[in-house]
Amino acid sequence: MTAHWSPDYRSILGLAEACDVPTRFSCRSGVCHVCVTGVVAGTTTYVQRPLEPPADGSVLICSAAPETDVVLDL
């Protein structure tokens, strides 16, 4: 699936919800790590810094936005 980013979504999770893409999430603030998702390609940035970042190659979609085109393992 291809979707176009807008800062109005605030996070990758917001974009996924707007596109009816099923995702895992709970806290929406980068604390619980339920939304940790693999990054296949591209780069992201955190709009809300998580307390503890996920492992390399993963992103917390509830608090991140794309910096480039990204491919995620949802």
Q: How widely separated are the two ends?
A: 11 Å
Would you identify the CATH architecture? Roll
Q: What gross morphology would you assign?
A: globular
Number of extended strands: 5
Structural class: mainly beta
- Per CATH, the superfamily is Beta-grasp domain
Residues in β-strands, percent: 15-25%
Secondary structure topology:
Blueprint: H1 12-18, E1 36-41, E2 44-46, E3 58-60, E4 64-66, E5 71-73
Task: Considering the chains and any ligands shown, give keywords for the structure.
single chain, 74 residues, mainly beta, Ubiquitin-like (UB roll), three-stranded antiparallel sheet, two-stranded antiparallel ribbon, 1 helix, globular
Characterization of the model:
Helix content is about 10%, strand content about 25%. By secondary structure, it is mainly beta. The protein has a single domain (about 5-74), classed as Beta-grasp domain (Ubiquitin-like (UB roll)). A 3-stranded antiparallel β-sheet has the order 3-1-5, with no helix packed on it. The chain has a two-stranded antiparallel sheet with strand order 2-4. The chain is globular, with a radius of gyration of 11 Å. It starts with 11 loop residues before the first helix and ends with a strand. The mean pLDDT is about 95. It comes from Mycobacterium intracellulare 1956.
